[in-house]
Amino acid sequence: MKFLRIVLVLAVLAYAGWLAWPFLSPFLEGAGMDAATTRAGAEAQVGLNLPVIALWIGAVVLYLVAAALLGSGNPRAAVAYFLGFMADAVLRLAIDRGGFGGGSDAGGKIDPNAPSMQSTITEGGPAAAPGGLGADLGVDPTWLVLGALVVIGILIVVVTRARRRKRIPGQLSI
Question: Does residue 14 or residue 32 have the better pLDDT?
Fold first, then answer.
């Protein structure tokens, strides 16, 4: 179980790093602090608004907290992980469906003529690229990623659940 816990900690840290990479990469490329801050700010301004940025940062922070708690064997790691998962799922589904003001009309239907959707379509996004990760399986990649994250969450619950040991009456606990 300890090996599985270490693998899960590394997996959660890797996913949190991948999720935070668009904001972290300008700082790690060796640019000056002013240039890196400007580029990271530009990443935040490209089609994203305050609720999306808050969900994005919240998901990354909660995944990092979950990894730290999981590394120490704390059962609250599952709670932190699933809170981060909920923020990540809302973020993915809102962006995928064009929510948060990006590409949808008042009824929630995706408008391919919206400015935020035009960049997705012209850059080879979901509307233009039929051959992606889930295209071979006939499943949307968003659902594959969310499914994998649920499986990791279930494994975290299994690894961190409290185990009761039988003690003989009078035996000291260690």
Answer: 14
